[in-house]
Write a structure and sequence with these properties.
heterodimer; A: 73 residues; mainly alpha; B: 223 residues; Rna Polymerase Sigma Factor, Chain: A; Arc Repressor Mutant, subunit A; 2 domains; elongated; DNA binding (chain B)
Chain lengths: 73, 223
Amino acid sequence: MNGWAELDRFLRTDPRDVGCAQAMELLHVYVELVAQDTGAERRHPGIAAHLRACGPCSDDFEGLLAAVTGQDD
Amino acid sequence: MATAHDRTGESTTGPVSLDPESAGWLRALRGSEPDRRAAVERLHALLLRIGRSEVRRRSARFGVTGPELDDLAHQAAADALLAIIDKVGDFRGESRFTTWAYKFVILEVSAKVSRHFWRNPRVPLEIDDWERLPDRFGLDPAAESEWRDLVAALRRAVEEKLTERQRRIFVALVLTGVPPDALAAELGTNRNAIYKTMFDARRKLRAALAAAGLMDDGMVRRS
């Protein structure tokens, strides 16, 4: 198409998005739910929405997930 | 942006019983001096291992190599350990103790890495270079006729709809390419405040482009 998908995504906001502070507050809980595949997004839709939109928090999530799943070596 | 769990449909976590390993960590950290010292030493070793992995994972992006990487991991592990000891009373057993503890070292690495951005030649925050926007969003130069109006409208909206602070943060993050954490450090604020400012700015810009018929309103509906 016209290649503006990334701009479209950047400008899209989700009212469920809880922001960085709340996402980081519960990151350890969310990561374990993801690692165990036990409905992280369903139980914490606001954190899921935030991680889709926030690069730095998403990066922290990836780091913690790697740590708890043993992919950190 | 949502501000409370009950407004967002987030699941709240009630009282939970600790898994045996987490209970063991708490017992040791609150126990006799020899037990506590041994637990602290063991915890530091774990944090250092996770810290090293995390700085390696991020190293390509912040351009630090060699012994400096290991220094950074050591600093992150030491700072995380102090924070964990200080806050161990806050651990509520919602996850394994080690997952909770690893979060501290991951966030320490994240914060320390972000400060490295400013070690490069200083980047003026106010560079208002709209020529960078197409590249930033992967807009195909060959299809410029298709996005030229959209970018012009976006620029107009940034200039006319955003507050001065929103505009400044938009320019730094989007046009200058300053990482959010580095910008937060420079402005003496935090990641959450920067994100909230940009969240509101993104919503305003989307609304302006939707009003001009250039985009849909882009609101993600609750299911």
